[in-house]
Task: inverse folding
């Protein structure tokens, strides 16, 4: 599967809710300040920048699959941050890292068994994985609205054989996969975060419905988002369900 590229400039403008959630996840990662940390799915680099502030003697490797996100992150972050474009399922590091941080990324990865095995291999013994992504039930209303519109003309022909790009797993599934990959001290749980998107049309186009929009020609993108919005409550509130992950390589 070719990783989806993003409208990075639009995402940066609208990404305050993602950054706020990511900052809470970062607070769970206790650091001495000298570690090497992998930011697995850095996006435009907002959370990466906060991570860097906590590593005055350390090093950050920031990875994202989206070329436009990587370009934006390189503009935002100082040159000492090693920003790379890479698929997490293909990632290979020269040296293992002390910790892995990831926010709002793993649900875009289709194969969580392979993902966790790869992250386990990237960690030093005792290294920690601290992450959050979309979990079971995430943005359910918006996902359903997108699926319904995608079944209709003139959109349906562009979604033939497509079953969405998300993996919204349960805590139980994730704990099992992490342990199978070799992790211990595993703890996974769900939290709900309700977000006022501010600019609903732009937010859905760039973020929540971005996978749908990316499959459409330009002239159908705005009408698709408008048709999905007609099926959603007004005013719109986005109900995020976040899957929180804590684990350690043993």
Result:
């Amino acid at each position: 599967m070719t990783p989806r590229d993003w409208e990075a400039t639009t995402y940066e403008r609208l990404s305050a809710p993602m950054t706020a959630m990511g900052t809470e996840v970062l607070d769970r990662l206790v650091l001495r300040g000298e570690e090497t940390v992998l930011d697995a799915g850095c996006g435009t680099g907002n959370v990466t920048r906060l991570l860097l502030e906590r590593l005055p003697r350390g090093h950050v490797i920031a990875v994202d699959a989206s070329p436009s996100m990587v370009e934006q992150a390189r503009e935002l972050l100082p040159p000492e941050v090693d920003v790379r474009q890479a698929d997490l399922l293909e990632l290979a590091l020269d040296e293992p890292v002390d910790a892995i941080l990831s926010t709002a990324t793993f649900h875009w990865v289709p194969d969580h068994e392979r993902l966790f095995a790869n992250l386990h291999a990237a960690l030093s013994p005792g290294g920690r994985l601290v992450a959050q992504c979309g979990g079971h039930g995430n943005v359910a209303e918006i996902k359903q609205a997108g699926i319904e519109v995608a079944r209709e003309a003139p959109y349906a022909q562009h979604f033939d054989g497509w079953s969405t790009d998300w993996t919204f797993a349960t805590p139980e599934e994730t704990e099992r996969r992490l342990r199978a990959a070799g992790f211990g001290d595993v703890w996974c749980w769900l939290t709900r975060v309700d977000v006022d998107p501010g600019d609903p049309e732009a937010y859905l186009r760039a973020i929540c419905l971005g996978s749908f929009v990316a499959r459409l020609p330009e002239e159908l993108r705005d009408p698709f988002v408008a048709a999905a919005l007609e099926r959603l409550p007004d005013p719109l509130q986005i109900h995020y369900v976040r899957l929180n992950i804590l684990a350690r390589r043993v």
Observations:
- The first helix runs from residue 8 to 14.
- The CA atoms of residues 154 and 187 lie 45 Å apart.
- Residues 8-137+166-196+240-249 form a domain with the Rossmann fold fold (CATH 3.40.50.150).
- The first strand starts at residue 36 and ends at 40.
